[in-house]
Design brief:
Blueprint lengths: L1 E5 L4 H4 L26 E4 L3 H10 L4 E4 L16 H4 L3 H8 L12 H18 L5 E5 L1 H12 L13 E7 L2 E7 L1
Helix pairs in contact: 5-6
């Protein structure tokens, strides 16, 4: 079993802010009021919000932190929300690009996806045969799901505490269900 879970809600999430490299903890745990599958190993990005969420869901599981699974570096947009950025010329260009232009002073979309995919597959290889839960970020999950199942990056948006259970057999990604 492979499960991808988005961390619990932070203050930045509640305010609609771009929070990538900001290391904030969770603000509430209501989004975790659901049933999660058993995990032998839990892999986080090492950031407070993923560590705190993993501790709440899987208090007794072995945890590994992998920085390659961190959220995108939003550069100059970090910490701001739509209202605060809507008149910024670089933000307008980013929106017009469908969210694929590099963030000014931050990470490119392609670089972010490549980093997440590399980290995901390295951990799948390392812990093959185990029930693995990735407690990570919304963008990380979207990058992985797009790679595994096609479609568009934004087709796999998931709310805080939500996620996907992925079915894989002999290296083939067969299906997924939402948590």
């Amino acid at each position: 079993m492979i499960c991808l879970i988005r961390h619990a809600k932070t203050n930045g999430n509640a305010e609609g802010r771009y929070i990538g490299r900001t290391d904030e903890g969770i603000a509430e745990s209501e989004s975790l009021k659901r049933s999660y599958p058993k995990a032998d190993i839990v892999i986080t990005s090492g950031m407070k919000r993923t560590e705190e969420t993993a501790q709440m869901i899987y208090p007794d599981a072995m945890r590994i932190a992998d920085k390659s699974l961190r959220e995108c570096d939003f550069g100059a947009f970090e910490g701001y929300n739509y209202e605060e950025l809507k008149d910024n010329i670089y933000y307008k260009k980013w929106l017009e690009s469908g969210g694929v232009l590099p963030f000014p002073g931050g990470e490119s979309h392609e670089g972010f996806i490549a980093r997440c995919i590399d980290g995901f597959f390295a951990n799948i290889k390392r812990y093959r045969g185990k029930n693995i839960a990735f407690v990570v970020h919304g963008g990380t999950i979207m990058a992985v799901m797009e790679r595994l199942f096609g479609g568009g990056f934004y087709d796999y948006r998931i709310e805080n505490g939500g996620g996907f259970i992925v079915t894989e057999e002999n290296g083939k990604w067969l299906s997924y269900t939402m948590l």
